[in-house]
Specification:
The chain is mainly α and 180 residues long. It contains seven helices and three strands.
């Protein structure tokens, strides 16, 4: 962890533990405060699992996988491998989005034409369903959401969110969204 990351982490912990009265002091010391949307403000991990489970049921993926866990494991294996190619720029975003569904279908025995057509549909449906799920779940409360809400109301600090994985990517490849 770099010294900048270390200072940011320490400040983020301090801000999240501070009372709402402390937010103006913390915000005043930084012109911009960035939050990573995935699993900080928005429960991406659990929402992704839920969206994939919904796809399994709605699209009758039991014709290829015996249960939802087998489907999600196959999807995650391919998705992780594709992100390893996407992050350094070896594949583009469209390839990542298409192949993360196409490859599991081919593994499961779908023919090329079916895999191509269904992968495109699954990608659209996955993103649609993901967007409809709540920001947080009862299983996991996002630790910095209150800090973000306090900072958004303070005019001295400009707050922004690093965009979701499915749009951008980790680190510098993520899109940035201004909150204020």
């Amino acid at each position: 962890m770099s010294s900048v990351e270390s200072r940011y982490s320490a400040q983020a912990r301090q801000d999240s533990e501070a009372s709402s009265a402390a937010a103006p002091r913390a915000a005043a010391s930084y012109p911009w405060v960035w939050f990573d949307l995935d699993d900080t403000v928005w429960d991406f991990t659990n929402n992704s699992l839920e969206a994939l489970a919904q796809l399994y049921e709605a699209e009758h993926l039991d014709r290829w996988w015996p249960d939802v866990d087998a489907w999600r494991d196959n999807y995650h294996r391919h998705n992780t491998a594709l992100w390893a190619l996407y992050t350094p720029g070896k594949i583009d975003r469209d390839t990542l989005r298409r192949e993360r569904f196409r490859r599991p279908l081919l593994d499961a025995g779908a023919d090329e034409a079916t895999a191509d057509a269904l992968a495109e549909h699954l990608d659209r449906e996955y993103l649609r369903r993901l967007a409809l799920l709540p920001a947080t779940t009862a299983r996991r409360r996002m630790p910095h959401r209150h800090t973000l809400q306090r900072l958004q109301g303070h005019s001295a600090a400009k707050t922004a969110i690093l965009g979701p994985r499915y749009i951008g990517g980790p680190g510098d490849t993520q899109r940035r969204y201004r909150c204020q």
